[in-house]
C-alpha cells in the first residue's frame, strides 16, 4: 500500500504518535503494550515504508538540543517604513509580494534519500538551536520528501516560518504570556512531550528552498533548468517545494509589479493588509522574482539585497518618565511600567507605557526624569522604544517585595518566591479567580476595589460579602452593590475543571485542568492525586507533575475554606467511567501477552470504559496478567515473581 492512498496528515499523525510512545518507553513510562506499539510501526511501514521515524534508534535525534551550523547564513531582512523607499525598490525589477508571517523561522534539512535529517531555528544566523524533536510533531512538515532519481546526491534545506493558527490559539492561550511568545515558547520547551498537543496544531509556511550537491556545494539558480527542469524563477521554486511534499503556499504569495506612483502603491498595500488570514503578520515582504538576479545581488552581513520588508510605522512621540511603578503577578514576577507626562498618540492620550522587566530597565538606562520615545501601533499597548536623554539619577531596582520578602533575580526578571504570605501576589490571584469563574458584572477593577477596601483576603471571602459591605466603598450604589453580590452568589456551583483553573495552580492552565478533571472526576480524587498517576497521562513530564501536585498541597487550606461556600460539580466527561466503579476491573492495572482471539485495541477500549488501565509491562503494581498458556516470556516470569493473578482470555472476557 503506498502513501498515495493515505493523506500526508494521517502519516504524520501516526509518525508523531510512534515518536511519542518511543520516548515514553525509553524513559520507563510506557502507556501502551509492546504489541500495540509494534502494530503502529507495522502500519507505518505499510503506508510509508521509508519514513525516517522507522529507522531511528531510541527516540532522540543525534544533535537534539545542540547548536547547528547553517550551511548558508540564515539572515534577517532589510526593512523600511517609507512608501517612497519601497516604490524605488520595486521599480528596479519585477517582484513577488508575500506576508511576513509573525512566527519563528526554521530550516528543515533532508538527506540524499529525502529523509528528514534535522531542523533548526535561525539563532544568530550562523548557528541555530536544534529543534528536530519538536518539529517531528508538526504535521504539515514532511518527514520524507519526494525525490526524483535525477537528483542523485542532492540534499535539500527548506526554510520557512512556523506559526500558530489564530483559529487554534483560543484553546491553548492560558499556557502562554502572549500570542507572540507561543511559538518560541513551545519550540523552546526541553520536555517535548509536554508540548506535543500544541506542536500538532502549529503550521509551517515555506519561503525558500536551498539545494546542495554531493560535495555539499550550494547549487545556484543557474543550474535549476538542468537539474529540476524549471526556470530560475521564485514561483517555480515554490512549485518545487509542493512537488516534494510541502503544503501549497500560494495564498500568501503573489506576483507584484511597481504601480504608477507611490500613492497607488499605498492603496495596493492597504488592500493586501485587509486580506483575511488565519495568522498574524508583522509586515509585507517584497523579493525580486528572477532568482539569478536575486543571487547575483548577494547579501550584506545582515540581509539579502534582493528582498525588502515593509512595515507600517506606528505613531511616535517624545515624553518624560515621571515615575516607575512596579506590579507583582500571581506567579511572583515583578513587572514595571512608566508613568509618563501625558502625550497624544493615534488620537488617544497616553500616560503610561510598559517597561517590561528588570533587564529592560537596566539595558535601556531608564529612570525617573529620562526623556524617551514611545510608540503606539494600531491598538496595542504603548511601548518605550528608545532613550532620548538619560536623567541624572539611575533607577534602583527594588531588593524586596512589598510584602517584605527578598526578591530573587531569575534571568531578565525579579521574582518574589514567598509562597504563603505575599498579599500583593494574592491580589493578582483574586483577580484570576474571579475571571476564571466568569462571574458576570464583576470586573478586574471591581475586584481590586474590594481588595483595597480590605474586604477580601482569599477567594472564600467573596462569598461572605454583603450589600452593606460594598456600600462602604466609594463608587458603589445600592443597585450596583446588589448586582455584584447576586452575581457572586450565583457562582456557587462550579464545574471541577473550572474550579481547578480558578485556583491558579502551577502548571494548571485551563487545558491541563480539564485533563485532570476528566481523569479524576471528583475533587476528592484530585486532592488525593499522586505525581505517579499524572505521569501515566499524555503531556505530563516529571517536573510539571511535581509542580501541579505540590501546588495543590500548598492550596489545601484555601480549597477547604472555599468548600464552605461553593459546590464543586463532578466532571461529566469522566462520570461514565466512574459509574463503572463496581466493575471487577475498575481501577485495576492489566497486562496482556501472547496470542489472542480478538485484537488488543478492542480489549483496550473495553478496559477504558470500565476505568481499568492496560499496561505494557508487569510490575508489583499489576493486578492481572491475561495469558492463554504457560510461557517463558519475561511478562509471565515477572507475573509469577510479583504474585500477579494470571487469567486466561476467556476468564478475562467473561467479566464484560
Structure notes:
This protein starts with 7 loop residues before the first helix and ends with a helix. It is 33% helix and 21% strand. It folds into five domains: 60-310, D-amino Acid Aminotransferase, Chain A, domain 1; 321-416, OB fold (Dihydrolipoamide Acetyltransferase, E2P) (Beta Barrel), CATH 2.40.50; 423-491, Orthogonal Bundle (DNA polymerase, domain 1), CATH 1.10.150.20; 494-578, DNA polymerase, domain 1; 589-653, Rossmann fold (3-Layer(aba) Sandwich), CATH 3.40.50.10190. It is of the alpha+beta class and 656 residues long. Strand 23 (624-626), helix 25 and strand 24 form a beta-alpha-beta unit. The strands form six sheets. Strands 12, 13, 14, 15, 16, 17 and 18 form a seven-stranded antiparallel β-sheet that branches. Strands 2-11-10-3-9 form a five-stranded mixed β-sheet. The model is unreliable at 57-64 (pLDDT under 50).
Q: What is the highest CATH level, the class of the largest domain? A: Alpha Beta
Multimer state = single chain
Reported by name, the CATH topology of the largest domain is D-amino Acid Aminotransferase, Chain A, domain 1
Shape annotation: flat
Helix content: 25-40%
Structural class: alpha+beta
CATH architecture annotation name of the largest domain: 2-Layer Sandwich
- What is the number of helices? 26
Amino acid at each position: 500500500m503506498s502513501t498515495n492512498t493515505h493523506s500526508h496528515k494521517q502519516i504524520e499523525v501516526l509518525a508523531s504518535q510512534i515518536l511519542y510512545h518511543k520516548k515514553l518507553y525509553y524513559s520507563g513510562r510506557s502507556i501502551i503494550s509492546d504489541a500495540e506499539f509494534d502494530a503502529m510501526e507495522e502500519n507505518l511501514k505499510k503506508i510509508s515504508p521509508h519514513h525516517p521515524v522507522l529507522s531511528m534508534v531510541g527516540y532522540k535525534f543525534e544533535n537534539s538540543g545542540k547548536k547547528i551550523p547553517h550551511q548558508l547564513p540564515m539572515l534577517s531582512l532589510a526593512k523600511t517604513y517609507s512608501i517612497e523607499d519601497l516604490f524605488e525598490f520595486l521599480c528596479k525589477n519585477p517582484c513577488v509580494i508575500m506576508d511576513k508571517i509573525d512566527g519563528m523561522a526554521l530550516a528543515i534539512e533532508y538527506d540524499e534519500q529525502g529523509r528528514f535529517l534535522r531542523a533548526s531555528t535561525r539563532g544568530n544566523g550562523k548557528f541555530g538551536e536544534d529543534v528536530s524533536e519538536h518539529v517531528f510533531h508538526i504535521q504539515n512538515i514532511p518527514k520524507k520528501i519526494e525525490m526524483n532519481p535525477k537528483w542523485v546526491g542532492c540534499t535539500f534545506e527548506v526554510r520557512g516560518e512556523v506559526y500558530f493558527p489564530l483559529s487554534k490559539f483560543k484553546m491553548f492561550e492560558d499556557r502562554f504570556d502572549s500570542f507572540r511568545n507561543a511559538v518560541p515558547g513551545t519550540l523552546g520547551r526541553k520536555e517535548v512531550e509536554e508540548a506535543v498537543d500544541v506542536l500538532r496544531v502549529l503550521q509551517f509556511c515555506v519561503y525558500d528552498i536551498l539545494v546542495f550537491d554531493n560535495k555539499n556545494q550550494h547549487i545556484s539558480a543557474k543550474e535549476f533548468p538542468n537539474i529540476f527542469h524549471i526556470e530560475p524563477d521564485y514561483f517555480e521554486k515554490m512549485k518545487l517545494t509542493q512537488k516534494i511534499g510541502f503544503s501549497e503556499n500560494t495564498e500568501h504569495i503573489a506576483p507584484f509589479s511597481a504601480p504608477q506612483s507611490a500613492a497607488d502603491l499605498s492603496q495596493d498595500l492597504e488592500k493586501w493588509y485587509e486580506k483575511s488570514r488565519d495568522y498574524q503578520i508583522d509586515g509585507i515582504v517584497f523579493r525580486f522574482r528572477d532568482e539569478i538576479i536575486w543571487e547575483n545581488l548577494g547579501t550584506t552581513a545582515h540581509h539579502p539585497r534582493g528582498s525588502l520588508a515593509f512595515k507600517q510605522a506606528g505613531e511616535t512621540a517624545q515624553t518624560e518618565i515621571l515615575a516607575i511603578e512596579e506590579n507583582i503577578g500571581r506567579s511572583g514576577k515583578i513587572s514595571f511600567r512608566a508613568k509618563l507626562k501625558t502625550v497624544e498618540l493615534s488620537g488617544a492620550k497616553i500616560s503610561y507605557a510598559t517597561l517590561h522587566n528588570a533587564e529592560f530597565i537596566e539595558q535601556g538606562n531608564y529612570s525617573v526624569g529620562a526623556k524617551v520615545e514611545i510608540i503606539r501601533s494600531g491598538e496595542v499597548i504603548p511601548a518605550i522604544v528608545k532613550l532620548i536623554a538619560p536623567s541624572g539619577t539611575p533607577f534602583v531596582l527594588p531588593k524586596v517585595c512589598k510584602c517584605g520578602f527578598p526578591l530573587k533575580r531569575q534571568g531578565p526578571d525579579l521574582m518574589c518566591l514567598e509562597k504563603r504570605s505575599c498579599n500583593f501576589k494574592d491580589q493578582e490571584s483574586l483577580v484570576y479567580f474571579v475571571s476564571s469563574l466568569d462571574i458576570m458584572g464583576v470586573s478586574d477593577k471591581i475586584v481590586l476595589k474590594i481588595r483595597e477596601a480590605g474586604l477580601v483576603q482569599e477567594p472564600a471571602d467573596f462569598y461572605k460579602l454583603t450589600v452593606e459591605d460594598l456600600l462602604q466603598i466609594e463608587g458603589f450604589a445600592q443597585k450596583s452593590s446588589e448586582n455584584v453580590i447576586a452575581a457572586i452568589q450565583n457562582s456557587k456551583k462550579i464545574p471541577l475543571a473550572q474550579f481547578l483553573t480558578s485556583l491558579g495552580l502551577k502548571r494548571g492552565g485551563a487545558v491541563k485542568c480539564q485533563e485532570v478533571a476528566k481523569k479524576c472526576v471528583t475533587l476528592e480524587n484530585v486532592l488525593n492525586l499522586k505525581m505517579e498517576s499524572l505521569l501515566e497521562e499524555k503531556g505530563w513530564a516529571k517536573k510539571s507533575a511535581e509542580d501541579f501536585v505540590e501546588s495543590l498541597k500548598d492550596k489545601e487550606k484555601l480549597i477547604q475554606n472555599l468548600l464552605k461556600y461553593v459546590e464543586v460539580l463532578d466532571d461529566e466527561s469522566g462520570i461514565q467511567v466512574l459509574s463503572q466503579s463496581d466493575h471487577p476491573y475498575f481501577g485495576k492495572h492489566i497486562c496482556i501477552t501472547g496470542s489472542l482471539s480478538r485484537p488488543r485495541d478492542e480489549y483496550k477500549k473495553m478496559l477504558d470504559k470500565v476505568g481499568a488501565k492496560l499496561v505494557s509491562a508487569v510490575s508489583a503494581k499489576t493486578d492481572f496478567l491475561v495469558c492463554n498458556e504457560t510461557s517463558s516470556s519475561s511478562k509471565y516470569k515477572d507475573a509469577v515473581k510479583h504474585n500477579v493473578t494470571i487469567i486466561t482470555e476467556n476468564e478475562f472476557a467473561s467479566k464484560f
